[in-house]
Amino acid sequence: MNTVTNGLAWARLGSGWRRLPIFPVILLAPMVIFGILGTHIAPYDPGATNPVNALKPPSWLIGEGFSHLFGTDYLGRDVFSRVIAGARASLTVSVVGVGIAGCVGICAGLVSGYFGGWAETILMRLVDIQMSMPPILLALLLSASLGTGLWMVIFVVAVVFWTNYARVLRGEVLSVRQRDYVVMARVLGCRSHTILRRHILPNVIDSALVVASLQLGAAVILEASLSFLGLGVQPPAIAWGKMIAEAKLYLATAWWLPFFPGLALVITVLGANMLGDWLRDRLDPKLRNS
Amino acid sequence: MQYDPVLSVRNLETHCFTPKGVLKAVDGVSFDLHSGQSMGLVGESGSGKSMVCNSIIRLLPRHGVRTVGGQVIFSGRDILGISESEMRRVRGREIGMILQDPLMSLNPVFTVGNQVGEMYRLHPQAEDGRPIHQRVLDVLRKVAIPSPEQRARQYPFQFSGGMRQRTVAAIALAGRPKVLIADEPTTSLDVTIQDQFLCLLKELQEQEGMCLILVTHDLGIVAETCDNVAVMYAGRIVEVGPVREVLMRPAHPYTEALLRAIPKPGGRGTRLYQIDGEPPNLLDPPPGCPFQPRCARAMPICARTTPPMKADENGRAAACWASDIEEVRA
Amino acid sequence: MLTFTLKRLAIGLLCLVGVSLIIFVAMRVSGDPTLLLLPDDALPEDRHAMRVQLGLDLPVPVQFGVFLENAFLGDFGNSIRWKMPAMSLVLSRLPATLQLAALAFLIAAVFGLLSGVAAARLRGTVYDSLIRFVMTLGLALPVFWIGLMLIMTVSVNMGLLPTSGRGTFWHMLLPAVTMALNPAAALSRLTRSSMLNVLGTDYIKLARVKGNSDSRVVWKHGLRNASIPVVTLAGIQLANMIGNTVVVETIFAWPGTGKLIIDAILARDFPVVQAAICLIAAIYIGLNLLVDLLYGVLDPQIRY
Ligand SMILES: Nc1ncnc2c1ncn2[C@@H]1O[C@H](COP(=O)(O)OP(=O)(O)OP(=O)(O)O)[C@@H](O)[C@H]1O
Ligand SMILES: [Mg+2]
Predict the structure, then answer these.
(1) What is the mean pLDDT of each run of 10 residues along chain A (290 residues)?
(2) What is the spatial order of strands in the sheet that B65-74 belongs to?
């Protein structure tokens, strides 16, 4: 059962080169490499200050070759190295956060869709309550009361994003539950968790994957917004949002300070969104309008 | 036939430009429609019937489909050549059309009265000065919609399938067109309503003196409703003529095969005849006569040269080398 | 219709209670407010007196009850920093935020709708691809970055518009454009795909058969059908915009609720945070209700 459905999902991705989402891969690959290798491939130590060399524009603009591709900041730190180092926080928070949100949300969706009853009522009211607050405000409230730091930010992202999975998965489970083979399995007396694992989960996992990929970009932006507002990961960890916030004072003189971290952010989000669109079109076109 | 035809289609060619090549969906179709006449257009699925209708009214898909040749002469001028804004005045007012699916062809967000009334707003008719809603009620009454005052205020989802179909007919009639094209108007209705609707259509056509082009798969419907019939195969008309003659004495093997495929009353137990083979791939049509690979009477010449249309003095014509039509030469 | 509205209002009220619970819990978790209210060297007796005065010596559920009761009367306590009732402080800043959000929404709706319809009508041409590319990009731009980039180019380098503050219409333009960008992109994409779905239907073909002009077909027969899914998204976007004011008002020093919230959070001024978030949640819920009612207007099949 499992292999069959997964095989189908794979087949629906298309064949040959079309199986690869070219643009998203081109956009995301460097960010993933930066995130994993980080400081190992950065030309300078991203934390090393050099006041003599402070606020230098990108070197290729002033004829100094490749010494500081993205210029230096107010402490003389290499912006390019810091952008590379910043990928880690951004990717960790968004991928792990959306992943945890997925685990929680999928469980909630399965339980409320399959069993119904009071569990469904409670979970769905919880979703309603949470959705009556703008996500960024919820995130701010949580960060402000729970404190900051990498795991706190991940927790916040997970809390903000689990509701979408729960809603979508619940709907999916409700429809899969009506299919003949599930009804049959229940009539034959299969235990609930067997049915859920063998028959329902494989059929709704595609949608979960699509929701995850569509939320990835939003999670990257949420992390960046939090660190922009000073509620993200804390130094010495480097985050793009934080770099942009620090650049506020130098808008008139050093455009490269906010520009390059922002560019990295845009490329990551664009890649993630396009990946999400691509997956959705292939796996679950009916999610298009949601 | 001393009068000029109301609608005259001459060598119409509409091609689909697909990534795999050019598909000749309509490949040199010609026919005439005289005042008050009704013509059935029959043929297998994919033979290009809808394409002919859409080409006449110039509503082809935006991309990849184009009428590349021929003329559609309507009241003395070629409407393939007129501007889009002139064409808009022809649509609805001069040539009306009933689309295939009644359940889908009414706009869900406007009331029925509004949608029928739009015809009067788009095409104000000088001879009739009555208020629009009066005329809407009249035309709804004409298509036998019960309690029209109340129905006109309702939305399409409150109508049954048959009533929606009659509403679509009312919309077409409201423009008082000279030609009405009905593209498989009854396929999505159940049989009793089908008959009702066709009777209504026939009656209205005679009352208003319209010409009717009725597209269908069903030769039985044609026999009951139409004066003439044109049989299409692979984008061409292979046989035309008065209904009785064509159905009694088909001149083209394809028509013959279509007739044999009709289940006969009392013929229970005998196997229903099926046309052998598949419809041709229009992207790569067979040489010569397109029907030749499936034809029981194929001769060597059929695979070499496309048969020309041979017409006799009664307006019958067929494109078959084997037909016994006595050609009259002008 | 009335029963539906009342039912939805009741659910909304329940959600508000839920939101207050979240806020209440968040506040409890974040530590002892007397640490903020009193100087570090205050005597333990004073601290205790303060706790009694604030009702913090009562059992937690009772505290929540009291909090809820006060909250419904609009009393969220006094701002720690500004020493005035938190709710009136929030309300005094609300008009500035609503003004900004309204302009931003107007810009987003007009641009999103026009470009989406244009892309749908130009389907398959380079213009369509161009609009789609720009909108996909627009969706990926973080609000705070766009804000800074606009300030940098338009205000600082070109000196065209003021960088911050509130005053003339021109002060409002940059923050509104910043806020409008993402929603405009999202609306444009959805409008395009929704309009394409609609333009492929038989009733659109019938509208053409009747002799309607192209623009009447699109604007009269197409738009209303196409806008049904778009309205939902517009509601979500408007609500998100109110959340985004936190970021945008910070960047542009716009004296609205958003800036107040972030200042209050950073200063741990919890009564203000609570008051503001409750108010915004109420607005949010109201907007959702409005969207549902608008649905009924657009789609005659929906009857409440
Ligand atoms: N947009 C298009 N692009 C390419 N080919 C098309 C397109 N539309 C129609 N065709 C082709 O044109 C041919 C004629 O289609 P048409 O719709 O006229 O058939 P039909 O006779 O009306 O069939 P049916 O009875 O099923 O309605 C078909 O072979 C079809 O595949
Ligand atoms: Mg057809």
Answers:
(1) 43 56 87 86 80 78 77 82 88 94 92 88 89 86 83 92 91 84 81 83 85 90 91 84 89 87 94 88 65
(2) B21-33, B7-18, B65-74, B77-78
What does the block give as tokens for C26? 């968040």
Q: In CATH, what number is assigned to the domain containing residue A36? A: 1.10.3720.10
CB-based contacts of B199, cutoff 8 Å, min separation 6: none
CA angle (C171 as vertex; C169, C176 as ends), nearest 5: 85
Whether B282 has a pLDDT exceeding 50, the answer reads yes
* Cα(B240)–Cα(B235) distance, integer angstroms: 14
Domain count of the fold of chain A: 1
Would you give the DSSP letter of residue A200?
I
Q: What is the pLDDT of residue A2?
A: 38
Give yes or no for residue C72 having a pLDDT over 90: no
Between C123, C206, C299, which is nearest B99 by CB? Answer: C206
Neighbours of B275 (CB within 10 A): 17
A129 burial (CB, 10 Å; 0-12 / 13-18 / 19+) is buried
At B65, give phi and psi (nearest 5°).
Answer: -125, 125
C122, C205, C210, C217, best to mutate vs chain B, most B CBs in 10 Å: C210
Strands annotated E in chain A = none
First vs last C-alpha separation in chain B:
14
Nearest to A133 among C141, C151, C284 (CB): C284
Instruction: Supply the DSSP symbol for B48.
Output: S
Give CA torsion, residues A140, C175, C81, C279, to 10 deg.
-60
B118 neighbourhood in chain C, CB within 8 Å: 210, 212
Mind listing the pLDDT tens digit for each residue in C113-167? 999 999 999 988 899 889 989 999 998 999 999 999 998 888 877 777 777 777 7
Average pLDDT over residues B275-302: 80
A251/chain C closest Cα distance in angstroms: 6
Nearest-5° angle of CA A273, CA A279, CA A280? 90
Residue C287 CA to residue C291 CA, distance in Å, equals 6
| Residues C98-269, CATH architecture | Orthogonal Bundle (1.10)
Tell me which residue has tokens 């405000």.
Answer: A137
- Give the position of tokens 């049904």: C228
Q: Would you say residue A79 lies in a domain?
A: no
Nearest to A80 by CA among A46, A56, A47: A46
Mean pLDDT, residues B277-283: 78
Pocket residue to mutate for ligand 1, from B13, B47, B213, B218, most atoms within 8 A of Cβ: B47
The span from the CA of C181 to the CA of C112, in Å, is 9
pLDDT bracket for residue B72 (50, 70, 90): very high
Each residue's pLDDT tens digit, C222-276 = 998 998 889 888 888 888 888 889 899 989 988 999 999 888 887 778 788 888 9
CA dist list (Å): A67 to A30, A50, A51, A78, A81: 20, 14, 16, 9, 11
Between chain B and chain C, the number of residue pairs with CB atoms below 8 A apart is: 72
Q: For the whole model, what pTM was predicted?
A: 0.85
Could you list the residue range(s) of the whole structural domain that residue A262 is in?
23-43+86-289
Q: Would residue A7 count as lying in a domain? A: no
Rounded to the nearest 10 degrees, what angle do helices B112-122 and B132-142 cross at?
Answer: 110
Does A74 fall in a domain?
A: no
The distance between the two most distant Cα atoms of chain A, rounded to a whole number of Å, is: 78
CA dihedral for A265, A267, A271, A277, sign (positive or negative): positive
Phi/psi of residue A15, each to 5°? Answer: -125, 165
Q: What is the mean pLDDT of chain B?
A: 85
- What is the number of the ligand closest to the CA of B45? 1
- Report the b/e string of C237-264 with b at 16+ CB within 10 A: bbbbbbbbbbbbbbbbebbbbbbbbbbb
